[in-house]
Amino acid sequence: MKEAEIIEMLKNTGVIMEGHYLLTSGRHSSRFLQCSQLLQYPGYAEKICLEIARPYRGKGIQTVIGPAMGGVILSYETARVLGARAVFAEPAGETMILRRGFWVKPGEKVLVVEDAVSTGGSVKKVLDLLKLHGAETAGVSIMIDRTGGKVDLGVPFTALLSMEIESYPPEDCPLCREGVSLQKPKG
């Protein structure tokens, strides 16, 4: 799938939002990507996950994991494409944990998927979880990299689309200084 097709899907489904947003990382941005808008359409989810899985086909992936919530649908659909098992990790304070009877075994070859990264914080927590369990991280595959390729996760990393979307610590946010109302799109 070409980048132009991905961008067209994002536009058609209302993924890109403009305003003043509080990101999961605590930073502020004038743009927000509500990837779940695209993932509510199974046909689009299938197309995206075929692309997310492409670099990992034939690599012996046993399990696909994503952080809740953004990685839940992606992990399921990508696992289906790869013929693997799908699980998701959930936040527990400052870490991610496996609940609901999910598990990973030492040496198990795992692919991490996520809808979008800003700082990579959620993905890094999933990587820490996998390390704790002794799993082998095959790589990370993201739908949208908001950093324009600047994020370093310490493992092989692919993104279907890379966009540099500026974000600011709250104390340096020009939108706050202008008095633009802050929205919590995940709230």
Describe this structure in words.
It is a single chain. The protein is of the alpha/beta class. It has one domain: 3-Layer(aba) Sandwich (Rossmann fold). Helix content is 29%, strand content 30%. The strands form 2 sheets. The protein has a 6-stranded mixed beta sheet, sandwiched between helices. It has a 3-stranded antiparallel beta sheet with strand order 1-2-9. Helix 3 (42-53) crosses helix 4 (72-82). It is globular and about 50 Å long.
Outline of the structure:
This protein is an alpha/beta fold and 187 residues long. It contains six helices and nine strands. It has one domain: Rossmann fold (3-Layer(aba) Sandwich).
Descriptive keywords:
187 residues, alpha/beta, Rossmann fold, six-stranded mixed β-sheet, three-stranded antiparallel β-sheet, 6 helices, 30% strand
Distance between the termini: 32 Å
Cα-atom Rg, whole angstroms? 16 Å
Shape call = globular
The proportion of residues in beta strands is: 25-35%
Would you identify the CATH architecture?
3-Layer(aba) Sandwich
User: Which strand order does the major sheet show?
Assistant: 5-4-3-6-7-8
Which regions are unreliable across 5 or more consecutive residues at pLDDT < 50? none
Largest sheet: 6 strands, mixed
